[in-house]
Structure formats: C-alpha cells, structure tokens
TrEMBL record:
Residues 56-120 form the GxGYxYP putative glycoside hydrolase first N-terminal domain. The lineage of its organism: Bacteria, Bacillati, Chloroflexota, Chloroflexia, Candidatus Thermobaculales. Residues 125-197 form the GxGYxYP putative glycoside hydrolase second N-terminal domain. InterPro entries: GxGYxYP_C (IPR025832), GxGYxYP_C_sf (IPR038410), GxGYxYP_N_1st (IPR032626), GxGYxYP_N_2nd (IPR048310), GxGYxYP_N_3rd (IPR048309), TAT_signal (IPR006311). This is GxGYxYP putative glycoside hydrolase N-terminal domain-containing protein. It holds the Pfam family GxGYxYP_N. It comes from Thermobaculum terrenum (strain ATCC BAA-798 / CCMEE 7001 / YNP1). Gene3D superfamilies: GxGYxYP glycoside hydrolase, C-terminal domain. Residues 456-677 form the GxGYxYP putative glycoside hydrolase C-terminal domain. Residues 358-435 form the GxGYxYP putative glycoside hydrolase third N-terminal domain. It comes from the Bacteria.
Length: 684
C-alpha cells in the first residue's frame, strides 16, 4: 500500500519542496476506491477531488425541469462521475447558456428531455435512495448514501417510476419515517455514515429551496410607509404605527416588509411587532421566537442578525394576522430601522414557503463521497454536531457549500470554521463541479503593464467583492467579465486561487482573456475564505503557505483579507501580518470592508489598504469624493474602494467615474501598492 501523507504533512513538506516538484505530481489523483475500510483519501498533491477527463458530455438545460427530476439528474451526474464525468446539467444563472461548456473543449450532445439522459446512464448506477418528503433534510442524508452506494436520490413517486421499465433501478434504501427531526437525521448520519465517507472535504448545503415567485410586490398590496433616502446606520430606528383598519373584512390581514433600495443591501430590520384589535393585543413577538412562528406567513429569503429579522435586495417577509370577528380597529406597532418599505393587503398572497428539493452541487458531493449536512452555526445543538465533525478532520480542510441564515450564517459560520482550521468555499450553487474539476486548461503567465510614475495624485484601487465564492466566479463574474466596457478602466477582480483545482477552465479563461486593466486578486482571505484572527496560531501558517502556492501557480501577487470577530472587522495581529508578509509575499494587502479607507506600510515593506465598502455605483463615487476631501495636492493619496459585485458592473463604473477630475487616477492593485510603497519608503 502506498504511503498516504496527511494534509498537515503535505502542506509542511510542500512549502519546502517548491512549486516545480508539486506541479510534477499535481494532476495525479487517487482512484475512487476505499482502502482497508478507512475513509476515502485523495493523494495529497492536491486539496480537492480530481476526476477523470470526460470523453463526451450529455448536456441538459434544467430550466423547466421539475426540481425532483433535477435531483435525480445531479445525483446521477455524481454517481456516474465516480468512474468518469459524462453529464452536464445547466441551471439558469447569470452567464449565457453555453458559455462554459463551449469553453471546456469537450464534445457534447444537447438533450431536451431529461428522462432521455436518465435512461442513457441508468445502467451506471446501482439503485435509488428514497428521501422523506415530510423531513426535507433526509435529502442530504440520501445524498450521502448515494455517494457511498453509487446511487441516485429520488422522491417516493419518482423512485417508483425508476424502479420500473426501462430503468429497472432497485430501491436500495427508503428514509421515509426513519427520523423525526433534522438533528436526529444528521446525528444518525454522523454515527453510521461518517466513518465511511471522505474526510478530506466537508460539504454543507440546504436540502431544500423555496418556491420561486414572480419578482416585485403584487399590485393588490397598499404601501403604508417607505424610506426615501438611504439609511445605513440604524439612525431611523423607532417604533412605527400602522393603521390596518382599511384591510379588515377578509379572513386575515397581511403585513409585508421589503427593501426600499434593492441595490445596496440595507433593507428593513424588524425587532418587535405588536398588533392591537379594538384596544386588545392579539399579537406581540420578537423575530425568531416561538411567538413569531404562528404569524410568519412567508419568510422568503429574510435572515437573522441577532434578534431581528431583515430582508435585503429582492427579499421580503410577510406576517399574517387574523383579527377577532367583528373587529373595527386594527393597529400594528413595529420597531424597525434602515431602508424599509411596508405594505398591507387583505388578499391572500401566494407564499414562497413551499419547500422543493435543492438539487445543485450534488454531483460533486456524490462523486467525492462526502457527508453533506445543513447544520446552523447559530443553533446550539446543531453547532455542537458541526464542531464535532470539524474536530475530526485535518487542518486546512475545505468546507464546501454555505450556511443557514445567509449573512448571519456567513459571519458565525466562517468564524466557527476558522476556529477549527477549516476554510470555506461558497459552492452551493457551483454547478458541474465534477466536469470542471476534471478538465485542465492552459494558464499562460501575463506580463504586467508598466507601473505609472508616482505623482501627487489621488490613486484609487477598485476592488470587486465576492471572489472567494467559487459559484460567483462561475456565474456572476462571467456576466461581469462579458460586459463590453470591461477593460476601459482598471478593476481588481477578487477570485479564489483554489479554482486552480476546482475549475481550471474558469480561472484559465479569466487569465487568458484579461486586459491590462484587469488584475486578478486572491481572496478573501487567500486560498479559501477564512477569518485570520479566529484561526488557531499553530496551524495558521499552513494556510498562508498554501495561499502562496496557489497564488504563485496563477501568477497572483496581491491578496484581499476579511478579518472578522463576532461580526466586526478587526486588524490583523502582528503574527498574522508576519505570516502573510513572509509566506504569501504579496505586493500588498487589501483588508476588510469598512466605513473608511486608510493606507499603512506594514513592517516598512508591505502596503496595506483598508477597504471602504460600497453598495452601488453612486456609493463608489460618493466614497471617493468623501475620502479625498481635504486633500491639498502636496502628496499622493491612496484610496481602496470596495465594489459590491452583485450590484455594480464595469459599465456602471465607467459611466459613474467619468466625472472624476485629472487629479484622480484609477490603478491596478499591484501598481497601487508599488506606488504606495515608493511614497511611504521615500518618507523614511
């Protein structure tokens, strides 16, 4: 049996051997088999699973495919990929339909009938795992079983169809009635399946998704109140009273909360709701309590932050109140703040709170034989099991997927993972990972353009957010990259260096098609999303050494770091700064997403720019203008401006920033840092 080094050994030895030796064995992946009954291991010359290059792909557009059939497709895709990828499932996202499959260079046949693809590949799987529609988390348990059994996951109805002609797939396991709660299901999985799973990758995705409704507020709602100016600081927090009497007469009254400005991420935050009918209190609750549950009609994509419920962008939430018969006066008092839009109706609206299977990323989970779970880091019992799982993996293990509760989950989940030396790859919408992880791509080095001459100007570095998110790198970034105005001004694009393994085709495409005004920057916070300060000191340099290796392979020399503790930005400690400077060796560091920007020279050698975050193109211009107030032209000024990639395009930036005067110069981050170093070192 060949010697299998641990992740820790590989990372420590690899930092000494150098990139050339690592590259020689880089693409040699272990076969997909178990060894002596031990958890599946990948050869440690790479961090993520590798799959055999596909000879041919069967392509299906899943736009109009029922989610339960999508679930069969993606789990079959993963089961087949355990031998060799052969299926490509496209979901409607940001990039054009054939953008990436045409870039792969693999021949494919396009199908319009998903059952045709299922029939073609049914002989390559061993059977069906049936999930329990009464407990959607069994979809995740079934997915774990599918990876171990080389099976597909299906609803009871579809499983019955698959068991007959022409598929003839036996039912291997039926999870209906097996568990009474989410936690019981995941505890059973941990006790019985985890010992057999691949421990080199952790995966966490939601088992379900809400039904999609048409965007916008239905016309039968009446607007009661709406913020008309931007509020990002809770300064309008108060108790607001709404007369709901005009909506009496029906079965119930529905009170809806939306984001008044959908492009900047500061929607309504609700702390307390009281409803009074004819002088009597009929509802009195705080969000995320048992008292709220009976009134929450549609939670949509709303999230939790502490004890308040918020909804940003196109998300919303709706409460339903049933007044006593004969009520003549109905009033709601709501403690809330930020950019709210409140409306009401007596018409029963449709609800998005109808759960459907979430099919995406399951090909990767099944093919890699990982254990997939959906444990909320903000719920004590679930957090405890999450921690137990992480305590049994090596330092610098990836957690691929995402967290419950969106932003609140991101902050607490990323910190929790960091505390256990686990890095995060946002991947729950990362599609066809088995295909992208199997196809190599050329990554020619680019010669950087000449640095501008240092002058007494205001130098601006625009840093696009979200690059740690490999599903963003696959979807939204491709849409932004195809913007016809990309390349007209310098933009610094954060990307995840782990794409070198996860999707060489994607990162290779960006490298090959970048203009001189496009700079790919690592992070946050390097090779995988982490918060440095919570990460244990004794393993932190495993992370920074790995970051250097992946950045070096891609020719990157700048890094963006997000360092949060309990949801708040903090500075890097002296030891963390030293690790980045000595191990990563960047031209400079961009730090955090704050309300102000600043520049300093770390240890006299490495510039660090604190990033001022913005939510839209107008915010970008406002931030630049405000940060340059008081500049007298006697010395250069350096401004690091964060650009929210979900809301801002290159065209937006070109049009908005065209008003800047000649004293401003937008630059690439490598030039930005070189100029800053030159200036600060000249001052002694």
């Amino acid at each position: 049996m060949p010697y299998e080094m641990s992740r820790r050994e590989f990372l420590q030895i690899g930092s000494l051997l150098g990139a050339s030796l690592l590259a020689s064995s880089y693409w040699q992946a272990a076969g997909a088999s178990y060894r002596g009954g031990q958890p599946h291991r990948w050869v440690r010359s790479r961090e993520l699973p590798s799959f055999k290059r596909p000879h041919h792909l069967d392509y299906i557009d899943a736009t109009d495919v029922d989610p339960d059939v999508q679930l069969v497709l993606t789990t079959m895709q993963g089961a087949v990929a355990q031998e060799r990828p052969a299926i490509y499932v496209w979901f409607p996202t940001n990039e054009p339909n054939h953008a990436w499959i045409d870039t792969l260079g693999v021949p494919y046949t396009e199908h319009t009938d998903p059952w045709e693809v299922i029939r073609k590949h049914s002989s390559k799987v061993k059977g069906v795992i049936v999930y329990d529609p009464g407990l959607m988390d069994t979809i995740n348990v079934a997915t774990t079983l599918a990876g171990l059994q080389r099976a597909v996951v299906a609803s009871p109805q579809i499983a019955q169809e698959l068991s007959g002609e022409p598929y003839n797939l036996p039912i291997i396991d039926d999870l209906r009635g097996r568990f009474t709660s989410k936690l019981e299901a995941y505890q059973w999985q941990y006790d019985h399946l985890w010992p057999r799973c691949n421990h080199d990758v952790l995966t966490g995705i939601s088992p379900s998704q809400r039904r999609s409704l048409p965007p916008g507020i239905p016309p039968y709602y009446t607007t009661l109140a709406q913020v008309t100016t931007h509020v990002h600081d809770s300064s309008n927090r108060g108790v607001y009273e709404f007369d709901l009497t005009p909506f009496l007469g029906g079965e119930a009254v529905y009170l809806r909360f939306d984001d008044a400005f959908t492009d900047d991420g500061w929607g309504p935050s609700v702390q307390h709701v009281t409803v009074i009918a004819d002088g009597q209190t009929i509802a009195d609750f705080q969000p995320f309590t048992d008292a709220e549950a009976q009134y929450l009609y549609d939670s949509d994509g709303s999230s939790r932050d502490g004890s308040h419920r918020f909804a940003d962008g196109n998300r919303y939430f709706v409460y339903r109140f049933v007044p006593p018969q004969g009520t003549t006066s109905l009033t709601a008092r709501v403690e809330m703040w930020n950019e709210y839009k409140v409306s009401a109706t007596s018409t029963t609206p449709p609800t998005s709170d109808v759960l459907l299977p979430f099919p995406r990323f399951r090909d990767y989970i099944v093919a890699a034989r990982t254990m997939v779970f959906w444990l909320d880091p903000n719920v004590d019992a679930e957090r405890e099991l999450f921690v137990r799982i992480m305590s049994e993996v090596d330092p610098y293990t990836p957690y691929m997927g995402w967290f419950a509760q969106d932003v609140a989950g991101e902050f607490s989940g990323t910190q929790l993972c960091s505390e256990h030396s686990v890095y995060v790859l946002a991947a729950d919408f990362f599609d066809n990972g088995t295909v992208f992880g199997a196809v190599r791509a050329p990554m020619p080095p680019r010669r950087p353009p000449t640095k501008p001459t240092l002058e007494n100007k205001i130098y601006v570095a625009l840093v696009m957010s979200e690059g740690d998110n490999i599903q963003y790198d696959q979807h939204r970034m491709r849409q932004l990259w195809d913007d016809p105005n990309r390349g007209k001004i310098p933009i610094n694009w954060t990307v995840n260096p782990i794409l070198f393994e996860a999707a060489p085709t994607i990162i290779g495409y960006y490298l090959r098609t970048a203009t001189d005004n496009d700079l790919l920057m690592a992070g946050p916070s390097g090779a995988g999303y982490i918060n440095p300060t919570p990460w244990p000191d004794d393993t932190f340099r495993i992370y920074t050494h790995a970051t250097y290796r992946y950045m070096h392979r891609l020719g990157m020399n700048t890094v963006y770091v997000l360092n949060r503790v309990n949801g708040r930005s903090v500075e890097l400690s002296a030891s963390e700064r030293r690790a980045y400077i000595e191990d990563v060796k960047p031209e400079g560091i961009m730090l955090n997403w704050d309300a102000r920007t600043a520049m300093q020279l770390l240890d006299g050698t490495t510039p660090q720019g604190t990033v001022r975050g913005t939510g839209n193109a107008a915010d970008v211009l406002r931030a630049i203008t405000e940060e340059s107030q008081g500049w007298d032209g006697s010395s250069p000024l350096f401004l690091s401006i964060g650009v929210l990639a979900w809301n801002v395009t290159p065209t937006d930036l070109v049009n908005t920033l065209s008003t800047l005067g000649p004293e401003y110069q937008i630059v690439r981050a490598d030039h930005f840092f070189e100029l800053a170093r030159q200036y600060y070192q000249s001052r002694g």
